Amino acid sequence: MAKRTEVKDYIRTIVDFPHEGILFRDVTTLFADPRGFRMAIDQMLHPYAGERIDKVIGLEARGFILGGAIAHQLSVGFVPVRKKGKLPGTTISEEYQLEYGEAIVEIHDDAIQPGEKILLVDDLLATGGTAEAGIKLVERLGGEIMGCVFIIDLPDLGGRKRLEEMGMDVTVLCEFEGL
């Protein structure tokens, strides 16, 4: 086995999943390796060392794993942004576009307090639609996004540019070309 020195080395590629022609970047192999997982969490936190962060939001579903670990390291709360209908209690929602259709994500209406500093976390940045929806939810509740951090960027899909055009600070640990 080749020596793994970067986060990218821990990520497996699965061909033709979930559809033919797609190269799926599987982070479960990264999560399963204690050294790789720690490396990813440490690198995701590094740009925000010394910054005030009140809460971490994680985007469904792998963002929950990463966001929970990051919130733990920062000793702050964690807030999930979930698919419509998955959260109990009162929520607010945001619709966004997918490649073929639409989706809706939700957050509890009391999860973020006005003025709180928020770090948005997910595993993959593709078109940026889900992240943009999460940002809009936080901003509607009066929170301020301090940064958006992802393990993987697929630059050909333009998500980073989309978020940066919204004024977001975007951090990614690695990039993969293509879809």
Précis, in short:
This protein has 179 residues and is of the alpha/beta class. Helix content is 27%, strand content 34%. It has helices at residues 28-32, 34-45, 62-74, 129-140, 159-165, and strands at residues 12-15, 23-26, 55-59, 77-83, 91-98, 101-108, 117-125, 144-153, 170-175.
Spatial gap, N to C terminus: 26 Å
| Sheet with most strands | 7 strands, mixed
Please give the radius of gyration in angstroms.
16 Å
* Proportion in helices: 25-40%
Structural overview:
This protein has 179 residues and is α/β, with parallel strands linked by helices. 27% of the residues lie in helices and 34% in strands. The protein contains 5 helices and 9 strands, in the order ββααβαββββαβαβ. It has helices spanning 28-32, 34-45, 62-74, 129-140, 159-165, and strands spanning 12-15, 23-26, 55-59, 77-83, 91-98, 101-108, 117-125, 144-153, 170-175. The strands form 2 sheets. Strands 5-6-4-3-7-8-9 form a 7-stranded mixed sheet, sandwiched between helices. A hairpin with a 7-residue loop joins strand 1 and strand 2. The longest helix is centred in the middle third of the chain and has 13 residues, at 62-74. The protein is globular and about 50 Å long. The two termini are 26 Å apart. The relative contact order is 0.17.
List keywords for this structure.
single chain, 179 residues, alpha/beta, seven-stranded mixed sheet, two-stranded antiparallel ribbon, 9 strands
SSE diagram, text form:
Elements (H helix, E strand, L loop, with lengths): L11 E4 L7 E4 L1 H5 L1 H12 L9 E5 L2 H13 L2 E7 L7 E8 L2 E8 L8 E9 L3 H12 L3 E10 L5 H7 L4 E6 L4
Parallel strand pairs: 3-4, 3-7, 7-8, 8-9
Antiparallel strand pairs: 1-2, 4-6, 5-6
